[in-house]
């Protein structure tokens, strides 16, 4: 949940492709941990996450992304206030349906600095590139690695 300064700085994000067409993501901060497991290749979750982070870095006040499961969907809602970002985790019952936030259930909120979110995203992206490479990522995930967006985030 929302924590003091120490909780804000300790936010971590990981994303791992697990075999062909499956991935897991983990968000941690202020003593809380949320695991999004069994993310399906039904949609391009890592690209959605990449786009959401880039939008924040480009000055958007709010962005979001979704992770489809079978069944269900988890969405992250990012709300920026200056250099801080609030990340709300919402659960939805149906995958592949982009429902409004109020149709989901907010289960956890993290707070972090925008710079920390950027660094955690870059760590996750660089781990994917190191462990799989561009070709194996696409072979395992079914979608190309979002290199252009990754490069824009690095440069931001």
Annotation keywords:
156 residues, three-stranded antiparallel β-sheet, alpha+beta, disordered N terminus, 35% helix, globular, 7 strands, single chain, 5 helices, four-stranded antiparallel β-sheet
In brief:
With 156 residues, this protein is of the alpha+beta class. The protein contains five helices and seven strands; from the N terminus they run H-E-E-E-H-E-E-E-E-H-H-H.
Structure description:
This protein is of the alpha+beta class and 156 residues long. Helices cover 35% and strands 37% of the residues. The protein has helices spanning 5-9, 45-57, 114-131, 133-141, 147-155; strands spanning 12-17, 22-29, 32-40, 62-68, 73-81, 84-92, 105-113. It has a four-stranded antiparallel β-sheet. It has a three-stranded antiparallel β-sheet with strand order 1-2-3. A hairpin with a 2-residue loop joins strand 2 (22-29) and strand 3.
| Low-confidence region ranges | 1-7
How many strand units? 7
Q: Report the order of strands and helices.
A: HEEEHEEEEHHH
Instruction: Kindly report the average pLDDT value.
Output: 92
β-strand amount: 35-45%
Secondary structure: elements and pairs:
Blueprint: H1 5-9, E1 12-17, E2 22-29, E3 32-40, H2 45-57, E4 62-68, E5 73-81, E6 84-92, E7 105-113, H3 114-131, H4 133-141, H5 147-155
Helix pairs in contact: 2-3, 2-5
